[in-house]
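Troubleshooting: if your tokenizer reports a length mismatch, compare against these two reference records.
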Amino acid sequence: MMEFFNQQMHLSGLAQAAGNPVLACQINLDKNFAFLEFRSIDETTQAMAFDGINFKGQSLKIRRPHDYQPTPGVTDNAAVAVPAGVISTVVPDSPHKIFIGGLPNYLNEDQVKELLMSFGHLRAFNLVKDSATGLSKGYAFCEYADVVMTDQAIAGLNGMQLGDKKLIVQRASVGAKNAMGQQAPVPIQVPGMTQVGQAGPATEVLCLLNMVTPEELKEEDEYEDICEDIKEECNKYGIVRSLEIPRPIEHVDVPGCGKVFIEFNSIPDCQRAQQALTGRKFNNRVVVTSYWDPDKYHRREF
């Protein structure tokens, strides 16, 4: 663990000098926690930025010890550049903090994060768990790295069916208490999208989220196999006119990359597919569905 953190400190440019920032490490295997001792106060504070970093397949929670006495004039809230790819496990209160309720308890952290990241990169994420059992309580909080994605994610996820549950997704600062009480979410209108809490009118085009990742679409053979598998599955519910899966292009921001769009021959065909595919698992990911405007689809506005 010392080697890991020393390496990360240097790779992220947080080390203030040559040599090892971490001097000592004590690990309590019974309670699954460890103490790290740094050579300087400033580097200790900088290391707080690694909250949420992945270590041997686990997302680490980094906190001060309970008996920590802060040095006067030193704060952990100083502007620290969060290392690339690190998602903090602390979601601070802000206008952009999102509440996600109605999550099936069998979904783990990675699965929920993958679902949320269909809309963009996360700055912070916390799946609330029972302290005694370690199992999910069925709700979470998050914040996107690009706050512009906040309303889009809310509009895209709120009311979505996952298994036998419906997601309740809204800003935590204005609706978390209502959401946990199963009351109606605060309505938010996003230009070009249906109002939150409404599924919107059914169309001939279905959009599938969290079904594939951009990485899976890079290789031509794998891309063609995925297209064929999805088309074959969707043909069970109606006639598929066309299929679009935007692929990643190096150094280009591709709209809708990783989303799957299927155009059916009729609205009833699309509705049958929507009912059958919502909440299904594809490569261990829970599929989320929504209807898409046919005009936008034909204009390739993904």
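Reference record two:
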Amino acid sequence: MSAVLSSPPPTAIATDGDAPPQGLVIRPVAGAAGPLGAEVLGLDLSRPLGREDFARIHRAHLDHHVLVFRDQRITPQQHIDFSRLFGPLQIHVLKNFQLAGHPEIL
């Protein structure tokens, strides 16, 4: 699947040119057929997440429905813990799609 970042400015902190983001940035992503979700930059999911940052991520999830967190180095348990911030997790009925030892992850 190919996606191109849309031209609207990020919904959070602006950056200068090619400089890496400073703090949490939420940038809408558009595909050929229109909006595709949002990319979340400037966030390390292996570290504790503050309430304000989670509130912004939750709002972005409600607004964009799909969020992309690139280049995260997290354990399966950190993935599960982050996902649970959004609510109870469901276990897929087909076990062959589950990550061994972590049925919450496909």
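Descriptive notes for reference record two:
- Residues 1-17 have pLDDT under 50 and may be disordered.
- The CA atoms of residues 22 and 42 lie 6 Å apart.
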